[in-house]
Each structure stands twice: as structure tokens, then as C-alpha cells.
């Protein structure tokens, strides 16, 4: 009767455009289930001007994941809410790490640029200096012949 539509979390859009009946049909759920999940805070749709719920493709993918965790893995709704929260936290932290890595790379580039400006000859010295050996020398005192 309905065509199966596959939406993955990675490719899903965040645009809140689907009304509750369409989102429920895409997720394979009853609209009342979506309302219950909204009340519990599992999936939080946007709201239209008149107050109606609007779901995104990402919301539908999340609804499917909630259903899978509940039906296939036997996780209760409190557990699912915790899992969703932890996955969001991991995602937020991964984005933060990426931002910090980018800032660190930028700082290293600025440092290299500043070093190049302060030393126009690069890291080479104008007068070549001899390199000192790092060899280890063991010293033993001489034995006197009378002992």
C-alpha cells in the first residue's frame, strides 16, 4: 500500500516539513505514538504557526531507531532516552574536538608564520657551528704501579 522509503541519520535533513500523519506513516507508527514520544522528550518535532507538530527526515530516522531499540533490543523508553542523549553528547563532543583541532592547526600555522617573520634566514645559522658529540665516555682512574 505504501512505498518503503529509506532514510539514514547521516543523510537526513533537519528541515521540519512533515506533518504528524506523514511522519508516522514513514516511521511505521501510529500518530498517537509520535505524540507520546514528544511528551516524553524522545523525539522533539518543530511546531507550525498553529501549534501543529512538524517533523524532519532526521526525526523520522530517529523514530525508526527508537522503534528498533524498543522492539528488537527490548530497551525501555527511559533507556532509549538515555541512549539518544548519550549519542547526542558524543556527536557534540566530536564536533567540538574537530573545532579544536582546526584551531590548533591554525595556531601552528600562525606560529610558523611568526617564526619566519622574525628569522628571515630560516632556521639555518649564518655561521656554521660544529655539532657536539653526544657520545658517552666512561672514565676510569689509572692504577698506580705500586699497588
What features would you describe in this structure?
With 147 residues, the chain is mostly helical. It is built from four helices and three strands, in the order βααββαα. It has helices at 20-27, 31-40, 57-71, 77-118; strands at residues 18-19, 46-47, 53-55. A three-stranded antiparallel β-sheet has the order 1-3-2. β2 and β3 form a beta hairpin. α1 (20-27) crosses α2 (31-40) and α1 packs across α3 (57-71). The longest helix is centred in the middle third of the chain and has 42 residues, at 77-118. It is elongated, with a radius of gyration of 32 Å. The chain starts with 17 loop residues before the first strand and ends in a 29-residue tail after the last helix.
Keywords:
elongated; 51% helix; 4 helices; mainly alpha; 147 residues; 3 strands; three-stranded antiparallel β-sheet
Biggest sheet character: 3 strands, antiparallel
SSE pattern: EHHEEHH
Global structural class: mainly alpha
Overall pLDDT metric: 84
Strand content: under 5%
Globally, the shape reads elongated
Radius of gyration over all CA atoms, rounded:
32 Å
Read across the widest sheet, the strand sequence of neighbours is 1-3-2
Low-confidence stretches: 1-7
Helicity range: 40-55%
The total strand number stands at: 3
Distance between the termini: 109 Å
Counting copies of identical and different chains, the oligomeric state is single chain
Helix count, DSSP H or I runs of 4 or more residues: 4
